[in-house]
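Hello,

Our lab assistant flagged a job as stuck in the queue for most of the afternoon. It eventually completed. Since we weren't sure the result was trustworthy after the delay, we are filing this so someone can double-check. Below is the sequence as submitted and the structure that was eventually returned. Let us know if re-running is recommended.
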Amino acid sequence: MQINKIIKQSIKRLEREGKILTPDFYAEAFCKEAKLAGFEVDDCLHANKLSATLNKDLQKELANYRIQTLAELARFLIAKLNRTNQSKCSELLEAQLHFNRPVLKAIEKLHNQEASELAKKSLELLGGSPTATELEYFKQLWENFVANYDDTFLYTLQKLGNVDTKNLQKTIENLQVSKGETNEKFELKTIASILISSLTPSIASHVTNQMQQLNNALKTNPDMLTQKSVEQQIKQAIQARIALDKQSVKEMVESLGGVLDKLSTRLIQMIEKSDGSTSEIQNIKKELELYSKEGESNFQLTHKKLYTIAVAIEENTLAFKTNLQDHSKEIDGLKKRVIELEGELKKAKEEAKTDFLTKLYNKRSLDDFMQRFESEYTRYNKEYTVAMFDIDHFKNVNDTYGHDAGDIILRSFAAILKKMSRDIDVVGRFGGEEFMTLLCSTDNKGAIEYAQKVRKYIEKAKFMYKGKRIPITVSIGLASRSAQPSLEATVKQADDNLYKAKSGGRNQVGY
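-- returned structure --
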């Protein structure tokens, strides 16, 4: 018998809403009545089941829009598809792919080993089906290359002649040495001198016998640079120079580690003390000066830099402060823009909560307020009453005067309902010509007084359209929460009482 009752209630709902008995309208009304009755029907769960198959982002959007029916889900997905221009996206991605390949091929031929290898690997990546993670990884590799690229060799070349940084080929041509010319631009003696300087360790304080012998030979006979056999000697000297510098760095780090350990201990002791900080810092500086004097000569510069840390921090702090002052106007502008965006966001959120025609709360907001009222009732036994309003014969108004007249009636009725309700009450448009008021801290007696007051006011009000008065009445259904077992039952009882008022002749209050 339960299903028969739901069917009857569904047909009654369609009659109240002035909707034609079509399969879609009937299915929507049936699912609403089944939910109010606490009856679960598989056909009404299709939308939820299909929604569960979508990705999490779409599911979150569906939850925000409160999609309930298959028709609503279909309209939502159609709107999504209409906004997505897959053809244009594919064309753009394809064009970007074709653009990147010749750029990478060009980089591969720029005679920089690291760039060429990275370009080759990037071309191999684009030849497959790269993931977003792989593309992000290669993007980081390119950013690292740009950040660490060392062009100091150009300054070395400048010692040999004119350097055109935009045309390295032309630069190399300018550096060519023609043996036998008395007025040649770059003599082998000059090149040998530069090579000897480059073979001298930059960190280590000494050279090997092999390196010293090669240096002496180049000084004595620069022409040996034209011999093929000297190439291997130069390579070995370079490797020896690198090894010496590495060993020197290792020794320096070990020495510096001891200094820093002692410095850390002294700083901790200084912080733990309540006074004498200034004198402690001065003592630390004196000790660092001693380290600088007693340490090896090749490490004095490192000690000196460590000693000037305090001064550097102070200078950087002042520079940072100056930089902040220089950009204060820009920061103020950004703050102003943030405030504007916050205002726009607040306005957008408010618009999402209201009905576009009547400016009252929409059904989604009413559902949220009902949950809030129900929570207060459950926790604190705070009574509330649901009042359902339905404008009598509203369909006749649309049919007789047109939908513009109907919109005016709805807006005027909404304004009256809002005016006659308290600030603590919640007034909203439930759907079509149906409205709802959630009466806070109001029992059935108080709700009846409120409903009769609204009904009489509407009956006497002058609703005008193009100079003609349109007579309007309203039917009202009431249900107090304390008289019902649940929120859903309260809403259903208010709807049933509204139906009684309409079937009993309209322009009445049902309770």
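-- support follow-up --
The delay was a queue issue, not a problem with the job. The result is valid. Confidence is low (pLDDT under 50) at residues 177-185. DSSP finds 22 helices and seven strands in the chain.
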